[in-house]
From TrEMBL:
It comes from Morchella conica CCBAS932. One of its GO terms (molecular function) is tRNA methyltransferase activity. The keyword Cell wall biogenesis/degradation does not apply. This is tRNA wybutosine-synthesizing protein 4. Pathway: tRNA modification; wybutosine-tRNA(Phe) biosynthesis. PANTHER family: TRNA WYBUTOSINE-SYNTHESIZING PROTEIN 4.
Length: 1034
C-alpha cells in the first residue's frame, strides 16, 4: 500500500505556526504514553505506540503514573460505551477521537474486539497535516494494516478522508469548522448512529467560543455521548500548581484557552448542561484513582516501579478531570453506575449537580478569628523539599538533607536571626548523616536534636539514627529496621516517639520510643480501636501529657481523616500507649484533617497548628491550608493567612517542614515539588508566621551551610595559568578588584592577553559605526515593526536561571525597543538573540540574523584569532537594571559593549566551589551584586562604557547589571583544538567532553562502594576526593 505524497515545506502563516505548536503537544504526550506502554505492558499485550514513537524515552515515575492514569480513565469510558447494549441492535456504534494525535486507540480496540456490542466504526479526526503523518505511519506498518478490512489510502483526500477501511476512518479537518464536520458526518451516513466522542487534552488549546459551539453542535445529534479529559483549576489560577501549569502551556505557546472561563467541575458540568446535554458526570482523576483503580492494579504498578511522589501525584490528579455527557438522561452512565460510591477526589453531576464528595473546606463560622501574617525570606540554599527541620535552641533552627533540583542533599543548614549574639556557633562539616530525604529531625532538649531514618531511593530505606549536639553529629543506636515517611515527636524527659512509615512497599505498624540511655523501646498499644497503619501522618505532643495522631495514607492508598488521642504509661522496663478515638471525628469539619504529608506544631493551650499536605478529597483551597485543632475544645478551624511575596505568589505546601521558633513564630521551611511535566515549583526559602499585628513584624534570618563560621577549610589558592601569568596576582581578599584595562594595538598584544588568562578591557579597538549609530530610533528604522523577537521578561530586577523567575515572550522588535528604553516603563526585558533560521540547531550570528545592521559592526583586525575561530555572535539588548545571573561559559568570548553603561563582575575559575553552582550546572544560585562579600573569593569588577571590548576567558563565572538600557554583542570563539562536548552546542556552553564523561564515572565509582559500612565508605571516598584534587593541582 503506497503512503500518501509528502507536502513540500514553505513559509508558514501565523495561524499555521499556532496550529503547529498545538500539534507539537502531541509529540511530547505520545512519548510519555510510550514510556508507560513499555514499562507497564504485560507480555501478552500488544504495544501499538511503538509504531508511532521511534525514539522512546523513559519518563520519571511521576509522569509514568500520571499518564497511566490518564490512559486508564479514557480506556474505561471507551470500553463502557463499547460494552453498552444499544437501544436498537441494528444501530451502528461510532467512536470519534477528536484531536486524536498519534493515539492508537482504534487499533487497540479493534485488536481486542471483546465484550463489545454491535457494529463499530472508529474515526480519528485532527489537523490535515497531522492526519497525513499518521496515515504515513499506518501505511508503513503492516501490523496495523493487517487489522483492517479493505483498507484504502486517499491521496489526495476524498471529502477530507485520508484513509478508510470497514472499521476505520482517518479524517483531516479543523475542529472549528462545524459546517465541514456536519457535511462529513452526513456523507458517511453516521449522524443517526450511536456516537461516542472522546477528546483527551485536545480541545483545551482551541478558543473557548469554538469549543462551546462544538459542544452545542454535538448535543444536537440524536444519540451522542461525549467524554473529555482536560485540566481544570479547582482552587483558581493562583494555586502554585495551577500557575506552573499555565506558565508551561503559555511558554510553548499553547495556552489553555477555556480554563479561566470554566475553572471548576461545576463550571464544566454547566458548560455541557447549558448546551443541550441531558446528563453530565464529571470527576477529578483523584476520584477515579481512589475508586476505579483496583487494588490489584495498584500492586502491579508498585511491582514494576517503586513510587513515592504521592503529593505531586495527588496535585496532578486534582487538576485533571474526566467528564461523560449524554444527550439523553442517563441514570447509570460509566461515572454514575448503580451502587457506585466515590471514596476520594471530587465528583459533580447533572441533573442536580451536587458534589457527591464535598470539598474539604471550612465555613465562616469555623475559622479562627485572629489570622496570621506570613513573611517570606528567600534563599537558594533552601531550594530543597522533603528535608527535616527542628529548633536547635536559642531561636536557632537546623534543616538537614532533602531533595535538591538534581540530587538528594546531605548537608545541614543553620538558620538564625541576624541579631543573634551567639552567631558564631555552627554545625561542623565533620561526617554526619549524609544525603537522605523523608526523615525526621526532633528536638530532644535545647541544643540536642535527633535525626531518624529516611531514604535514598524509594527502595532504599535507612535505619541509622544521629544525634546533633554541640555542633557535631554522632551516631546512636539504629532503628530495628529502616523506614521513611514516619512521624516523630518529642514526648518530654529526653524521649522521642515515632510511629508508622514505609519500608519498600510495606507500611510499618510499630510504635517506638527513644531515649539516650535506653535507645529504642517498643511501645505496646492498648485500645479498643487501634489506628490503622499509616505513613505521612501528623503526630504532635502537647504540654498536657497527651498527643494526637491524624491523617496519613493507609495500605490501600486512601488518605485518612481520623484523629486519635495518645497517652503513654511507663512500666519498669516497658511503655504502653493508650489510644482513644477523638470526638473530632464527629465534627462536620473533620474533612479538613483528611491530609497526607501535612506538618504540625504545638502552639500551647491545647492548640495544634496543621500546615499543608494534600487532601484525599478535593484539592485543599488556599484559605484552608492551615488549620488549628483545639484538643480541649474539640474544634477544627481554618486560619486566614496573609502572604507577603514580591510577586504575590503563594507557597506550595508539600515537602516542607514546620518549626516553632521561640514563643510567637512558626517557620515553614523549604518545600515545593515537581508539577507533573510542567516544571518545578519550589518555595526556595522560608515563611515566618506571626499573629496579625498593627505594626510590621520583620524577621531577618541568616542561613548558613554546615561548616560556615565555625570551620573554614584552608584551601590552597591558585590563579588560572599562574605559571605563565603576566598579570600580578592580587592580595587575598573578597573585596572586588578593578578589571585591568590595556591598550591593544596588534594581534600579538591580544595573544599575550589570551596567554595570561585573565579578563582585560581592551582599549583602542574599532568595532565599527555601531557605537555611533545604534540608538533606538536607528534600530527601529532598520529593523521595523514586522520583525519579532523572543525576549526574557523578568519578574524582578535580578534574573535567576535556577528559579526561572522570567518567562519567554514574543513581541515586535519595535515594541521591545520602546519598552526597554522607556525610563517610565518599569519592565524588565532582556534580548539574547537566537538564530533567525534554525534556533534549535544553529548558533546566533549577527551577520545572518540581523543583516540590516550587521555592516555597522566589525571584529577588529587585532582580534584576528577571534574571527578565525568564531562560534557565535549573539546580539544583546537589555532594559535598565535587568541583572544577568551568575554563570560561566565553556568558550572564551569578547564582549563588545555598544551603548549604555553596565556593571560587570567576574570571578576566577578557582572560586567556582564557593559560588553555589549545583553539580553539573553552569548557572549559580546566588546574586553576586546583593550577596555581599563572599569569603575566600577573588572578584574583579568594572563599569563598561560604549566602545569597551572585554576579553572574558573561558570558565570565569560572571554576572552583569545594566545601569541603563544597554546594547552589546558577544563573540564566542573556540580556544581549544579539541575536547568540546559532543553534539549540538547552540549557546557555546556545553561542558567539555572530559567533564561530561567524568560525571558518569563518579556515579560508577559511588556504586562500587555500595554495601560497605558508612565509616569505610566515607573514609575511602574522601581519600579519593583528595587524590583527585592533588591531580588537579599538579
Amino acid at each position: 500500500m503506497e503512503p500518501p505524497t509528502k507536502k513540500k515545506d514553505g513559509p508558514k502563516s501565523e495561524k499555521e505556526k499556532r496550529d503547529g505548536a498545538i500539534m507539537g503537544t502531541n509529540n511530547s504526550s505520545i512519548v510519555s504514553k510510550r514510556s508507560v506502554e513499555r514499562l507497564y505492558s504485560k507480555p501478552d499485550e500488544h504495544q501499538f505506540l511503538r509504531y508511532f514513537v521511534k525514539k522512546p524515552q523513559r519518563r520519571s515515575p511521576l509522569i509514568n503514573r500520571g499518564y497511566w492514569l490518564r490512559m486508564r480513565a479514557v480506556e474505561y469510558v471507551v470500553h463502557s460505551f463499547l460494552s453498552e447494549e444499544p437501544f436498537d441492535r441494528r444501530t451502528k456504534k461510532v467512536v470519534i477521537n477528536l484531536g486524536c494525535g498519534y493515539d492508537p486507540l482504534p487499533f487497540q480496540c479493534i485488536s481486542e474486539a471483546k465484550n463489545v456490542c454491535g457494529d463499530i466504526l472508529y474515526i480519528d479526526i485532527d489537523y490535515p497535516d497531522l492526519i497525513g503523518k499518521k496515515v504515513q505511519t499506518l501505511c508503513e506498518t503492516p501490523q496495523l494494516v493487517a487489522l483492517l478490512t479493505e483498507p484504502k489510502v486517499h491521496d489526495p483526500p476524498v471529502n477530507h478522508v485520508h484513509y478508510s477501511s470497514s472499521e476505520y476512518l482517518a479524517i483531516g479537518c479543523d475542529l472549528r469548522d462545524l459546517k465541514t464536520l456536519q457535511a462529513i458526518f452526513d456523507g458517511q451516513g453516521i449522524t443517526k448512529s450511536a456516537l461516542f466522542f472522546t477528546a483527551e487534552v485536545s480541545l483545551a488549546y482551541m478558543d473557548r467560543e469554538s469549543v462551546d459551539a462544538l459542544v452545542a453542535w454535538i448535543a444536537t445529534l440524536p444519540d451522542a455521548r461525549f467524554s473529555i479529559l482536560e485540566q481544570f483549576l479547582p482552587s483558581g489560577d493562583t494555586h502554585p500548581f495551577a500557575r506552573t501549569m499555565q506558565r508551561h502551556f503559555n511558554s510553548l505557546p499553547t495556552p489553555l484557552k477555556s480554563i479561566l472561563s470554566y475553572p471548576t467541575l461545576a463550571n464544566q458540568v454547566a458548560r455541557y448542561s447549558d448546551r443541550g446535554w441531558g446528563s453530565v458526570d464529571a470527576v477529578d482523576l483523584l476520584a477515579f484513582w481512589s475508586s476505579m483503580v483496583t487494588e490489584e492494579e495498584r500492586k502491579y504498578l508498585e511491582s514494576i516501579e517503586l513510587f513515592d511522589e504521592w503529593e505531586e501525584f495527588f496535585l496532578f490528579c486534582q487538576h485533571y478531570f474526566i467528564l461523560y455527557a449524554w444527550t439523553g438522561e442517563n441514570p447509570y452512565g460509566p461515572l454514575r453506575k448503580e451502587g457506585m460510591r466515590w471514596i476520594g477526589g471530587e465528583y459533580c453531576y447533572f441533573p442536580d449537580h451536587r458534589p457527591q464528595y464535598m470539598r474539604s473546606q471550612s465555613s465562616e463560622e469555623s475559622r479562627v478569628e485572629e489570622g496570621l501574617d506570613a513573611e517570606y525570606t528567600g534563599s537558594p540554599l533552601l531550594k530543597r523539599w522533603f528535608g527535616a527541620a527542628a529548633e536547635w535552641g536559642g531561636g536557632k533552627l537546623v534543616y538537614h538533607g532533602g531533595l535538591g533540583t538534581k540530587t538528594r542533599m546531605g548537608s545541614s543548614l543553620l538558620i538564625a536571626e541576624e541579631h543573634e549574639k551567639n552567631h558564631k556557633c555552627s554545625i561542623s562539616a565533620s561526617p554526619g548523616p549524609g544525603a537522605r530525604m523523608c526523615h525526621t529531625l526532633t528536638q530532644v532538649s535545647p541544643g540536642k536534636l535527633l535525626l531518624v531514618g529516611g531514604r535514598t531511593s524509594p527502595g532504599q530505606s535507612l535505619s541509622d539514627v544521629w544525634l546533633l549536639e554541640a555542633g557535631s553529629w554522632k551516631k546512636v543506636q539504629s532503628l530495628p529496621s529502616g523506614r521513611f515517611r514516619h512521624s516523630a515527636t518529642a514526648i518530654g524527659n529526653g524521649k522521642v516517639l515515632i510511629c508508622g512509615g514505609k519500608r519498600d512497599n510495606e507500611i510499618i505498624d510499630e510504635w517506638l520510643i527513644w531515649s539516650e540511655c535506653d535507645g529504642w523501646k517498643r511501645a505496646k498499644v492498648e485500645a479498643d480501636r487501634k489506628p490503622s497503619p499509616r505513613f505521612g501522618a501528623v503526630l504532635c505532643w502537647t504540654d498536657k501529657s497527651y498527643g494526637i495522631l491524624s491523617g496519613g495514607m493507609d495500605s490501600k492508598g486512601q488518605v485518612l481523616g481520623d484523629m486519635w488521642r495518645l497517652e503513654i504509661t511507663k512500666g519498669s522496663d516497658t511503655y504502653t500507649l493508650v489510644v482513644s478515638w477523638s470526638f473530632v471525628n464527629l465534627l462536620s469539619t473533620r474533612s479538613l484533617l483528611r491530609r497526607f504529608g501535612a506538618r504540625a506544631v504545638y502552639l500551647g493551650a491545647g492548640r495544634v497548628l496543621v500546615i499543608g499536605g494534600v487532601s484525599g478529597g478535593a484539592l485543599i483551597k488556599s484559605e484552608d491550608e492551615m488549620v488549628e485543632i483545639h484538643c480541649e475544645k474539640v474544634t477544627v478551624r481554618a486560619i486566614d493567612v496573609e502572604y507577603t511575596h514580591e510577586d504575590g505568589r503563594l507557597p506550595l505546601l508539600i515537602g516542607h517542614d514546620v518549626v516553632l521558633a521561640g514563643k510567637d513564630k512558626v517557620c515553614v521551611i523549604g518545600g515545593g515539588g515537581v508539577c507533573f511535566s510542567f516544571g518545578g515549583c519550589f518555595n526556595e526559602g522560608m515563611w515566618t508566621l506571626h499573629a496579625f499585628k498593627d505594626g510590621e513584624v520583620e524577621s531577618d534570618w541568616k542561613i548558613l551551610e554546615e561548616g560556615e563560621l565555625l570551620e573554614k577549610k584552608k584551601r590552597r589558592q591558585t590563579f588560572p595559568f599562574e605559571e605563565r601569568s603576566v598579570i600580578t596576582p592580587r592580595p587575598k581578599t573578597s573585596q572586588a578588584m578593578d578589571i585591568k584595562r590595556m591598550k591593544v594595538k596588534t594581534a600579538e598584544d591580544f595573544e599575550r592577553i589570551r596567554e595570561a588568562g585573565e579578563p582585560v578591557i581592551m582599549e583602542g579597538l574599532n568595532i565599527g559605526e555601531c557605537v555611533k549609530n545604534w540608538c533606538p530610533a536607528y534600530l527601529k528604522e532598520k529593523l521595523g515593526n514586522e520583525r519579532e523577537v523572543i525576549v526574557h521578561s523578568a519578574q524582578s530586577q535580578f534574573m535567576s536561571f535556577q528559579s526561572k523567575n522570567f518567562s519567554y515572550k514574543t513581541m515586535p522588535f519595535e515594541e521591545f525597543i520602546d519598552i526597554a528604553f522607556d525610563p517610565n516603563a518599569h519592565k524588565y526585558l532582556y534580548l539574547r538573540s537566537l538564530s533567525a533560521t534554525n534556533p534549535t540547531s544553529e548558533p546566533a550570528n549577527i551577520s545572518k540574523d540581523f543583516p540590516e545592521i550587521a555592516a555597522d559592526f566589525s571584529i577588529p583586525s587585532e582580534l584576528g584569532f577571534v574571527k578565525a575561530n568564531e562560534h557565535s555572535s549573539p546580539f544583546r539588548i537589555s532594559s535598565k537594571e535587568v541583572g544577568m545571573w551568575l554563570h560561566f561559559d565553556v568558550m572564551a568570548n569578547v564582549l563588545c559593549h555598544i551603548r549604555g553603561t553596565k556593571r560587570f563582575r567576574v570571578y576566577p575559575p578557582t572560586d567556582v566551589t564557593r559560588l553555589s553552582f549545583p553539580p553539573g550546572a553552569s548557572s549559580s544560585t546566588i546574586n553576586p551584586f546583593t550577596e555581599g562579600d563572599i569569603d575566600d573569593t577573588y572578584p574583579q569588577e568594572a563599569v563598561l562604557q560604549p566602545g569597551d571590548v572585554l576579553y572574558l576567558p573561558e570558565l570565569w563565572p560572571h554576572a552583569a547589571l545594566p545601569l541603563e538600557p544597554c546594547i552589546a554583542i558577544n563573540v564566542f570563539f573556540r580556544g581549544l583544538k579539541s575536547g568540546y562536548g559532543i553534539g549540538k552546542d547552540v549557546y557555546g556552553n556545553r561542558d567539555l567532553a572530559a567533564y561530561e564523561k567524568g560525571r558518569g564515572l563518579v556515579g560508577r565509582i559511588a556504586r562500587e562502594f555500595e554495601g560497605l559500612p558508612e565509616t569505610a565508605r566515607r573514609f575511602y571516598m574522601e581519600r579519593l576526593v583528595e587524590e583527585l584534587a592533588d591531580v588537579a593541582r599538579d
